[in-house]
What does this fold into?
Amino acid sequence: MDQWSIGRTVLLGDAAYCGSPASGQGTSMALVGAYVLAGELAATDGDYRSAFAHYESKMRKYVETNQNLALEIINDFIPKSRTEIFFRNQMIRLLPYLPGNGIILWEDGKTCGTSRQCY
Ligand SMILES: Cc1cc2nc3c(=O)[nH]c(=O)nc-3n(C[C@H](O)[C@H](O)[C@H](O)COP(=O)(O)OP(=O)(O)OC[C@H]3O[C@@H](n4cnc5c(N)ncnc54)[C@H](O)[C@@H]3O)c2cc1C
It folds into this structure.
């Protein structure tokens, strides 16, 4: 979607940037979007035009990065043969035993493209 707001109306979550089933991340994008939008509305003291513009510029890269995960993941997500299904299932069974289990991955201290700004 080219634009997430018009006038006094603004979209967030699935209504603005629904992720693909292959990328997931829809809940994260909705929660981060709500947090950034609320923070920008508070920071701009009710100037919704400015808040909506800041919200969108801060969220765009994060949303695009997450949506693009689908392009990277789709080949693994839909195995093309019984052999690929077998290896995919073995890898999933191995996950709890791999090092780093339980650690949330951060990309250079950023959540997939957005800096963690606190409001
Ligand atoms: C099967 C499935 C599996 C998923 N798995 C994952 C996952 O593993 N990880 C992940 O991150 N995301 C997942 N998602 C996506 C995730 O659920 C959504 O991205 C997320 O819920 C979007 O939040 P939202 O607040 O934008 O929309 P929603 O959670 O859809 O909330 C919209 C709300 O608005 C209400 N509503 C609609 N119309 C009106 C109206 N006219 N008046 C009042 N209320 C209204 C609805 O009842 C609903 O409660 C999955 C989605 C599906 C369908």
User: Anything to note?
Assistant: Residues 13-15, 24-28, 30 surround flavin-adenine dinucleotide (CB under 6 Å). Helices lie at 14-17, 26-43, 48-77, 82-94. Strands lie at 5-6, 9-10. Residues 5-74 form one domain.
